Amino acid sequence: MQEISITTGESSKRLENFLKKRFPIGYVRKLFRKNGVRLNGKRSKPDDLIAPGDCVQLYIPFDKDQKSSRQSVTLRGALEIIFEDDEIVVINKPAGIAVHEGKDVLKRESILGMLEARYRPQGIAPRLVHRLDKDTSGVLLAAKKDQTAKQFESLFADDGVEKEYVCLLVGRLEQNEGTLDLRLPGRQGKSVRALTRFRVAKRFSETTLVRANIATGRMHQIRLHFAHYGHPVVMDDQHGDFSFNKRFRKEYGLRRQFLHASTVALEYHGKKRIWTASLPADLSKTLELLTSD
Fold first, then answer.
1. How many beta carbons lie within 10 A of that of residue 60, not counting itself?
2. Are 77 and 118 in contact (CB under 8 A)?
């Protein structure tokens, strides 16, 4: 059993929110679901309010060595800034870090948490205006002001942003360029149109390097489109060719999906701005090994 004493510096807040600041959401939900948390020795609910002097008892052990707690230890506070002014910050997101908190991810170990820690002393609460998958690297934008966030979110929602990705696909594509027009699940559960245009950059013996431009921004759009096309993204652990991935990982050492957001372009204060991020070391090394073969 673990005990946490509420200090005088803690203002009154919901017990659930207090715990979420210290543990992954999945663990906190498990505590309440299995009645594994007490407040001053009494069974508690997520909405119970805590106050200085209270004592929280946790009866379900938290595994400090779980994957989520190891994700970003070496990367914390070392985000690469591509561009920054008073309204926005553009970063080169590393692979392996979730953009926001989740079931097994503490907020402070997410990109948003790192940005909040960086700008909190300045009185700034940054907001992400779009998303990248945890294992996707590349250009990611955040706004420092609410009004700017709303403007950028509208741009992304209305397809007013040019986004290019570099990805390695399983198999050799025959055509040099093409368009994938396949409806995908939307936020309300209804299918929505999704459009991906691509052109071949280089062919290898068993894979093809392509540059993909998405005219829409659906969840897992590139991964789902190319999987449906019969050429999934190399090392995609959800929609990919699992037997191929196992062999590729053993031969080339790549441990995550080969997908990188290389470019974001949009209108900003009346001018077209283009932000780019070069391939990270793991993807560059993979291409060098493929080329040498």
1. 14
2. yes
Q: Which tokens sit at 217?
A: 């921004």
The closest of 16, 38, 15, 28 to 104, measured between CA atoms, is 28
143 closest CA partner among 217, 97, 81, 90: 90
The whole-number pLDDT of residue 129 equals 92
CA-CA distance, 224 to 36, in Å (whole number)?
39
Phi and psi (nearest 5°) for 205?
-65, -40
**Grouped pLDDT means (10 residues each) for the chain, 293 residues:** 79 82 82 91 91 89 54 52 95 93 79 90 91 95 93 82 96 94 78 89 97 84 92 95 96 97 94 95 96 83
Please state, in angstroms and rounded to a whole number, the distance separating the CA atoms of residues 45 and 80.
Answer: 40
Task: Name the residue with tokens 């001018």.
Answer: 271
CB 174 within 8 A of CB 138: no
Q: How far is CA 280 from CA 64, 94, 207, 277, 285, in A?
A: 29, 8, 19, 8, 9
What is the number of other CB atoms lying within 10 angstroms of the CB of residue 170? Answer: 22
Neighbours of 260 (CB within 10 A): 26
Q: Residue 85: which residues within 8 A CB-CB, separation 6 or more?
A: none
- The residue annotated as part of the active site, out of 54, 133, 236, 241, is 133
Q: Could you confirm whether 133 is annotated as catalytic? A: yes
| Largest CA-CA distance found in the chain, in angstroms, rounded | 68
Strand partners, 80: 92
Paired sense of beta strands 259-268 and 137-143, if any: parallel
